[in-house]
Amino acid sequence: MPQSGHSPARKPVPNPSGVHFLASHSIAESLISFCSPGPADLVVDFGAGFGAITAPLARTGARVIAVERDPAFVRKLSKRVSQHPNVRVVTADARSFPLPRKDFLVVANIPYSISTALLRRLLTPKVTALRRAALIVEWGFAKRLTTSVPRTKELAWWAGRFDLSLERRVPARCFRPAPTVDSAQLNIRRRAGLGRSAERALWALLETAYRAPARSVRATVAELTGRKPHRALKSCGIDPAAPAGSVSPRQWATLAIALDGNSQPSER
Ligand SMILES: C[S@@+](CC[C@H](N)C(=O)[O-])C[C@H]1O[C@@H](n2cnc3c(N)ncnc32)[C@H](O)[C@@H]1O
């Protein structure tokens, strides 16, 4: 749009690396507070940059792994956190860095370009040790992820096993230099009560439902279990006549737990 004579064109801020660093302590604190790490925890900061998140994480006493691809950033960050023996700075690509096998947390301001790849690594595998994550992602991406009924089976799988919630909008002015779009704090918390066999049940329910989303939930579940599921559906607050494609991942998870019969739906 042409600039009017009264408002001079704003000078673009030079940003040779294309990186948008977090410049808000309160946002960093908000991310950390959702995961509330302590000395017994392991936290990974993906795309650690100069440490806007790594530095306050270091002070929590948790074991911190800061993963950063750019060796120049790694050198600077390593100096910054050299007084903190609980922090390990690693030069690596977040898309291939081996994830911890034991319970871990993630707090990170990740590049928009790798958001999907990273979430796929964290949330898709049937066996994952992720407990909680607080991430800064692009606003529109966070909206798609937290919609009540996801359009794809993959998103439903993520949202069935993890509670995904949009904590807050993070305005572009919270970064240096400011990006062109706003971001969001996306909170991720593993649902408790979903044991291995309930997860298998959830996977089977989602596969069947997303194959024929217009079919009723009653027919979808009957095909899988060979039983009339009326009572189980009612107890989970699901209308048996509703189309399978209208059921939320949280409801599918509750139903999977009920059908599995071994565990109670709850969250930690
Ligand atoms: C949005 S900046 C965030 C930096 C820092 N965490 C902050 O909040 O200021 C993303 C960082 O991720 C790094 N990065 C980009 N792609 C990466 C990848 N595939 N693996 C690891 N780090 C990556 C960039 O070099 C940059 O430092």
Automatic annotation (TrEMBL):
The keyword Oxidoreductase does not apply. One of its GO terms (biological process) is methylation. Pfam families: RrnaAD. The keyword Transmembrane does not apply. InterPro entries: KsgA/Erm (IPR001737), rRNA_Ade_diMease-like_C (IPR023165), rRNA_Ade_Mease_Trfase_CS (IPR020596), rRNA_Ade_methylase_Trfase_N (IPR020598), SAM-dependent_MTases_sf (IPR029063). S-adenosyl-L-methionine binds at residues 20, 22, 47, 68, 93, 109. Keywords: Methyltransferase, RNA-binding, S-adenosyl-L-methionine, Transferase. CDD domains: AdoMet_MTases. Residues 27-192 form the Ribosomal RNA adenine methylase transferase N-terminal domain. GO terms for molecular function: methyltransferase activity. It comes from the Bacteria. Belongs to the class I-like SAM-binding methyltransferase superfamily. rRNA adenine N(6)-methyltransferase family. This is Methyltransferase domain-containing protein. It comes from Prauserella endophytica.
